[in-house]
Amino acid sequence: MRIVDPGPSPQALCAPLSRGARRAGLRRSVWMALHAQLRSATLSSRLRGSAPSRSRLLCACATTPPPPEACDLLAYLNASPTPFHAVAESAARLRAAGFAELSEREAWSLSPGGRYYFTRNASTLVAFALGRKVQPGSRFVVVGAHTDSPCLKLKPINKALPRSGFLTLGVEPYGGGLWYSWFDRDLSLAGRCLVRGPEGALAHRLVRIARPVLRIPSLAIHLNREVNTEGFKVNAQQHLPSILASSVKSALASRAPAPEEGPGAPRSHPLLQTLLSAELGCAPDDIADFELQVVDTQAATLGGAYDEFIYSGRLDNLTSCYTSLAALLASSSDDSLAEEGAVRVLAHFDHEEVGSQSAAGAGSTVMLETVRRIATQLGRGEEGVVERSLRASFLVSADMAHGVHPNYSDKHDAAHAPAMHGGLTIKHNANQRYATDGVTAFIFRELGKRVGVPVQEFTIRSDLACGSTIGPIIAASTGMRCVDVGAPMLSMHSIREMCATDDVGYAIRHFSAVYERFSTIDIAVDG
Fold first, then answer.
1. In which domain, by residue range, is 364 found?
2. 35-46, pLDDT tens digit by residue?
3. Residues 304-333, mean pLDDT to the nearest whole number
4. Which residue, of 296, 324, 352, is where some domain finishes?
5. CB–CB of 385/136 below 8 Å?
6. Domains in the chain: how many in total?
7. Average pLDDT of the residues in 503-517
């Protein structure tokens, strides 16, 4: 993705960094090539969220360019500040690849070789491609992930009432975030709004305020001397309300009366309505309701001395969403589906971070209804087609994994310490917090071996509690065989997380192998 001028070699561009070359002055051709790079680096700077610098481009010549799929992941992350935006971005990519949109409220007409998708609540997405040789009882090969991440969500009544001279917005923590990491960040708002049209009809509209409009300041060390020894203790109700404006400035700017109180009063402050309406291009009173969350304004970026890392929010679990989407798109060409007898499915669910028990979560009817509707059409009235399909199916539950931390390596079992750049990690837990078993682990490991990608293993220390994923939930409700996997990362559930660029490509290749090769390996293992 980084644009390099084809004229001078990397060595020529790096040569001016030597002391002798600096004294002698750069050759005109090298300067012109560098100038062309600087002018053409728009895409790179946009992905990084910062302006390109001469020294950075010069130094980068000595390294291998980052994988293109890692750069594309940056674009996906930057387009997806909320689950609503992530689903919209995924849907746009599916449509561009020829997938037809379905509605759960309407009858489906499916054809072998066809490619389809639908959404629920605008925050959950299911896409599938039918092999041209599908039959009654055909297996489903599924890669599942989740669109949500821990965040701060605005409370439904948000009048931004004055607090010590500031207008603050009330927020509620969503999921298990590292909330201390949200302090002293340049924050903003994103989500969806219900907007009234000219004749009163309501429309669902995505909104994102790109500039920083919120901040949660930390308390000065002078007023909290023990913070570095006793820890940063966050009271969500008291400490997380976010500063929107100074109350005096707001009053002078608007010259409006204070927000009304009592029944029938507006549910949000006029200033908040004004900010949203400016982004949506509507009148403030046209905004009937909204679901908003606080978001970081810092863009996803490449990092590390060799650009070998990705720094971003929401890597857990949009990295899995992106890589599984890329794999399905790569595995859904006409040629790839020509000899396929299975249904290749992508399922991105909302609300995993809070237990998945919602109408749009993995604990809902989404997965089972998808299988039932497709299998019923393929079955043409045969007995047991849904049950036969489920028992033949395979689910990869893709959620990020805990990479070994260099400063806290004792938090890992020494034999199960996934490393960055080491490929996807198979996650095991004897107490079924992950749904992996010996057979599904072997299948996934063997698929990686066949396409030449590395595979790692993880189980949590026996004296620590284990988290869970959508894997056990879907496996229990459908009876599908399941393996839990994920790319290693650091800073999980922080506002800024970290993973390796190489693992993005490994994940895409591995998930592509699941889609394209599972039917062959499954005959050998479970024929």
1. 69-148+313-526
2. 344 334 434 444
3. 97
4. 296
5. yes
6. 3
7. 98
Q: Is 56 exposed, middle or buried (0-12, 13-18, 19+ CB in 10 A)?
A: middle
The pLDDT of 345-361, averaged and rounded, is 97
Same domain, 243 and 132: no
Q: How far apart are CA 300 and CA 314, in angstroms?
A: 9
For the cut 80, the answer to whether the pLDDT of residue 257 exceeds it is no
Per-residue pLDDT reduced to its tens digit, 58-107: 444 446 788 999 999 999 999 999 999 999 999 999 999 999 999 999 99
Residue 276 shares a structural domain with residue 199: yes
184: in domain: yes
> What's the alpha-carbon Rg for the chain, to the nearest Å?
25
| Sheet of strand 162-163, all strands in order from the earlier edge strand to the far edge | 162-163, 166-169, 242-246
HSE (CB half, 13 Å, CA atoms) of 231? 5
Say which residue the tokens 């993005």 belong to. Answer: 504
Please give the torsion angle defined by the CA atoms of residues 322, 323, 327 and 330, in that order, rounded to the nearest 10 degrees: 60
- Partnered with residue 142 across adjacent β-strands are 345, 395
Which of 39-43, 173-177, 258-262, 343-347 bottoms out in mean pLDDT, i.e. has the lowest? 39-43
Residues 57 and 87 in one domain: no
Strand partners of residue 481: 394
* The residue type at 511: F
pLDDT, mean of residues 289-304: 97
Structure tokens at 134: 């599908």
Is 90 exceeded by the pLDDT of residue 451?
A: yes
Distance from chain centroid for Cα 247: 36
* Mean pLDDT of all residues in 490-506: 98
Q: Are 291 and 322 members of one domain?
A: no
Give yes or no: residues 428 and 514 share one domain.
Answer: yes
**Residue 104 DSSP class:** T
Is 314:80 a contact under the CB 8 Å cutoff?
yes
pLDDT at 63: 60
135 lies in the same domain as 262 = no
How far from chain centre, in Å, is Cα 313? 8
Asked if residue 3 is part of any domain, the answer here is no
Percent over 90 (pLDDT), the chain: 76
CA distance 103 to 128: 14
Amino acid at 281: G
Residues 226 and 98 grouped into a single domain = no
Q: Could you tell me if residue 392 is inside a domain?
A: yes
Residues 214 and 132 in one domain: no
Boundary (domain end) residue, out of 42, 62, 82: 62
CATH classification at residue 248: 2.30.250.10
Q: Judge whether 372 lies within some domain.
A: yes
Residues 293 and 158: their CA atoms lie apart, in Å, by: 12
Say if residue 317 is preceded by a cis peptide, omega within 30 of 0: yes
Give every CB contact of residue 31 below 8 A, 6+ residues apart in sequence: none
Contact 522, 394 (CB under 8 A): yes
Nearest to 215 by CA among 197, 241, 248: 241
- CB atoms under 10 Å from CB of 219, counted, come to 11
